[in-house]
Structures are given as structure tokens and as C-alpha cells.
Write a structure and sequence with these properties.
This protein is α+β, with helices and mostly antiparallel strands and 378 residues long. It folds into two domains: 240 residues, Aminopeptidase; 87 residues, Elongation Factor Tu (Ef-tu), domain 3 (Beta Barrel). The protein is 25% helix and 24% strand. It has nine helices and 17 strands. Strands 1-2-12-3-13-16-14-15 form an eight-stranded mixed β-sheet, sandwiched between helices. Helix 5 crosses helix 9 and helix 7 crosses helix 9. The chain is globular.
Length: 378
Amino acid sequence: MDTLELLKTLSNAPGPAGRESTVCSALQGLWQPYADELHVDAMGNLIALQRGTESGGEAAATGGRRAVMAAAHMDEIGLIVTGIEREFLRVHSLGGVDRRVLLGLEVTVHGRADLPGLIGSRPPHVLPAAERQKVLPWHELFVDVGLSEDEVKAQVRVGDHITVRQTVAALKNGRAAGKAMDNRACVAALTLALEALHGRTHAWDFYAVATVQEEVGLKGAITSAYGIAPDIAVALDVTFATQYNDSDPGVFELDKGPTIGVGPNIHPDLAKRLGEAAEADEVPTTLEPLPGSSGTDAWGIQVAREGIPCGLISLPLRYMHQPVETVQLKDIERTGRLLTGFVTRLPADYRPSWEDAMTIADGGPDGSGAEATKDVTA
């Protein structure tokens, strides 16, 4: 599967939080050839099951194989129509929208039919001098779809969703930029892993889940984890990549592979096994310390039911929550390869242990991520 074309398909499909059906439909077609079972649950999560091969021992005694779930959210940030004022739409955010970059964007209003539009405001010439350099508040922004007031009211309702119109741009050095790379880039990695695992033996049942409504509260992760009740899980999401004037701790270089999360949101034995899988398959990785909430689906999965041991793989991304989110294509492929190796190496009788799990592979004896970056030629 071509990574760039896959990414274009996923990024270009609209899927604002709470209205993910279009990107879900595109993903169903991609996942169908590699799934033994495929369904959309009541929340809207897309769930693909690949059955494992283990049939004896504990699996036979309990009537089923052990299950590992890998989750990547397919929703994107967007806008919601809050009012209609003459022929203009008043809007507010769905998720963590950055108002600094909204002015002048082309958008799609998902009304009774999809309508092209743009985000506008009063020009600086007519603003008081004190307001010209300020970030515009929501009540100063509007969406113009080019229709008359009567036509707008016939086509658009309060509560309709709006997404940014932005196609994927292939950049130099194997990079790509576009909207919704958070988190379609990881959905692409999950798709690559599903494809790879289809041709490989794995003892455990593997559930690939494209979750909904992560951007507004991890809702799809919570419900899908409760419904599947996996023995362990791995969440895939983006993290902050280095960019201009940003070299603080907590940012990671593009083309150095994904990060492996460590911290209270992450079961240490799963972090260790992810590190071992990376080492075995020569996937470059860096440890990412997370002292509290990871802000990802892992935070919701970890506390589903009686608790689910969870790991986290994160993909470095520049310009998060802007229309030009930028990723390295090889990092997407490396993330898929890491997940594939992790799943295929799970012993049939594996249970996450709290003993001997604190020394994480390649993180040094103190678990420090400072020395965790591996060779990046892969």
C-alpha cells in the first residue's frame, strides 16, 4: 500500500468530531480485505478483528484467545454552526481549533448538501487601531458560502459541521502536509499494520479500532475499549515535532521514528515490549516521558472496565491543529512496522507484569529517553 496515497485518501475525507461517517466509510473499504470481521459500533467506532492462531492451552480453557487492541482516532477538529445572521454563518470550535489561523481559510459546510465557503471578518481598515493586531474572537468571525439569506437558511441548520478544505501537499525529503494529519497519519500507520499482520502469524486476536470523538473527550476510545474488553491495548497518536524556534524538551525530530510513551498512563511492561520490538525490527524510536495524562486515547482506554494495560506509540508532527500539519512518511511506515512486530511477538500466555518492567529497552537503567534514539537509516 502506497503510504502517500493512503494518507491523501484519509486526510482528504471529512470527519469532524461527532460526524466521522465519511472517513469511516473510506476506511471500511481499505480495511475490509484484511479483516475477519468488520463493523461500526453504536458510537461510530470502526472495529476490525483479525483472529489469532492460538487454539490450545489457556485459549481453549477459557473459550477464546487473548486480545490486543490498537486504537487511532479518525476524527478531526472543525467548526459547528451556532447561528445564521443574514447570509452569514456564525461558528464555534469542535475540538482545539486555533483561531489564529482561521481567517481566510476555505471550508466545507456539511449542510443538507456540502457547500464550499470561506472564513472572513471585517478588514483591518475599519477596525479600531487597538484591535487590529489581536486574535479575532469567535463573534467577529463568519463563514460565507456565497448564497442569499433564504438560500442559506434552506441549506444550512444550526448544529451543522464545518471542515477545512485542504488537500495533502507532498513536500521534499519524503514529507507531507495537510489537514487532519492528527490523527489520520496514525490511522494510516494502523492500516499498514493491519495489512502486514494479514500475512503474518500472530497468536493473539488483533482489534484495529479507528475511534471517534477523541478531540472532544476520548469518547470513542472509552466506549470501544469497554465493548471489546481487550487484555492489553496500544494507542497511536501524534506528538510534537521540532520546528522553528522550538527545541524545548517534549519535542521530537522528524525522520527519527515514533516515540514510545512512558509514565503513569502507560503500563511499564508494555513500554518495555514495544522497545524490544523496535530493537528487533530496527525501528528507530525515542522514549517520551509523560508525567500525567498523555492526552490521547490511551488515557481513556487505561481506565475502561477494571483497567486495561496500555501502551502508547506517538508520531512526531509539526504545526499541530493547523491546516498544514506536517509528517514524515517514513515515520508512518516505521510506526506501522513497530506495531506489527509488537503484535506478532506476543506469546500466547503473556500477561503484563509489574515486576522487572522498569528497565525499558534502550532507555538506559533509569528509563531516560535521552539516550533512546536508535539508528535512523531504517
